[in-house]
UniProtKB/TrEMBL annotation:
Protein name: Amidohydrolase family protein
Keyword Lyase on entry: yes
Keywords, comma-separated and alphabetical: Lyase
Source species of the chain: Actinocorallia libanotica
PANTHER family for this protein: 2-AMINO-3-CARBOXYLMUCONATE-6-SEMIALDEHYDE DECARBOXYLASE, ISO-OROTATE DECARBOXYLASE (EUROFUNG)
Domain Amidohydrolase-related: 5-329
Superkingdom of origin: Bacteria
InterPro entries cross-referenced by the UniProt entry: ACMSD (IPR032465), Amidohydro-rel (IPR006680), Metal_Hydrolase (IPR032466)
Length: 331
């Protein structure tokens, strides 16, 4: 019987925050975060994380929640708050190593049930391959990245060695945005997350697609959080632009064709949107995801999947069959 696999779950690693405490650049990073989110949302988020800290740090709590939700395996990635893309090279390299080692140690407490992803210092592309290799050497399945880093879009030629190495090793790259460059325009009503995350997913995936990254690296395993944001359900405009605008022809095929080369989690919060995602990308490209244990996630990912009313074969593939193949999990 195929294991139920949740590919979108997080861990908080206090050691990462200890490493950056008091370092130059941290205060400016926090000020930017405050401008982007607004004081009210920061306060609510602080209380939310505090109430869920056991789930974010203690393996027995995580396993009990998984059992209650019918999840056999979680793919655990560091909280995106650990990216710290403001850090200079030495600190950035240290943050990635601490995150990789901490995630591996967390997952090692439940072999077979917890698999992990590490981090790379995306803001320093020259350090990214070594950080990926470090993560893989620890037994992690790949790495988590944001939609961009300061001065580095995912289309940046300096990231070509990272994409090459990830494709060569079969490492999974989990695209999970953190922060939106629309800044203060989204500083009320939690729009920084509600609107900002889907925007960032769409922009980041568009950079990968239109720049031809997936043409040059056909074996690259990209998993997009939050169902890929706004991109998968609004591809008609992208395809039209690709056809009529010569400067949009950075990729070999229409943008919609690349959805069959990207994987997406099921965390879209609406049965109709999930059906649209499956129609656009194919059932073989969608994976179960909950964003455990944050409040923008869901506590019932299997029930949410069932509510979409997909054919049994598609539902079983999304429940765990696709993830088993992608992450090398024994069924």
């Amino acid at each position: 019987m195929t294991a139920v696999v949740d590919v979108h779950a997080h861990v908080i690693l206090p050691e990462v925050e200890q490493a950056v405490a008091g370092r130059p650049g941290l205060e400016a990073h926090r000020e930017l975060d405050a401008r982007r989110n607004g004081a009210e949302s920061l306060a609510v988020s602080g209380r939310m994380v505090g109430a869920r800290i056991d789930a974010l740090t203690r393996v027995p709590v995580r396993l009990a929640d998984m059992d209650a939700r019918g999840v056999d395996v979680q793919i655990v990635s560091p909280s995106p708050s650990h990216y710290h893309y403001w850090a200079e090279p030495d600190l950035a390299e240290r943050v990635a190593r601490i995150a990789n080692e901490g995630t591996a140690a967390h997952c090692a407490q439940a072999p077979g049930r917890l698999l992990g992803l590490g981090l790379v210092p995306l803001q320093h592309p020259e350090l990214a391959v070594a950080a990926l290799d470090h993560a893989l050497a620890l037994g992690l399945k790949g790495v988590e990245i944001s939609s961009h880093a300061p001065g580095v879009e995912l289309s940046d030629p300096r990231l070509e060695p990272l994409w090459s190495r990830a494709a060569e090793t079969g490492a999974v790259v989990f695209l999970h945005p953190f922060g939106c460059t629309l800044d203060e325009r989204l500083d009320r009503w939690y729009l920084s997350n509600i609107v900002g995350q889907p925007v960032e997913n769409a922009v980041a995936l568009s950079h990968l697609v239109f720049a031809g990254v997936l043409d040059r690296h056909p074996g690259l395993k990209i998993v997009a959080a939050h169902g890929g944001g706004y991109l998968p359900v609004h591809l008609g405009r992208a395809d039209h632009g690709w056809r009529v605008r010569p400067e949009a022809r950075g990729c070999a095929e229409p943008p919609s064709a690349y959805l069959r080369r990207i994987w997406f989690d099921s965390l879209v919060h609406d049965p109709a949107v999930l059906r649209s995602l499956v129609a656009a990308a194919g059932a073989g490209q969608v994976l179960l995801g909950s964003d455990y244990p944050f409040d923008m996630g869901v506590e019932d990912p299997l029930e949410r999947l069932a509510a979409a009313g997909l054919p049994d074969a598609a539902r079983l593939a999304i429940t765990g069959g696709n993830a088993a193949r992608l992450y090398g999990i024994k069924e």
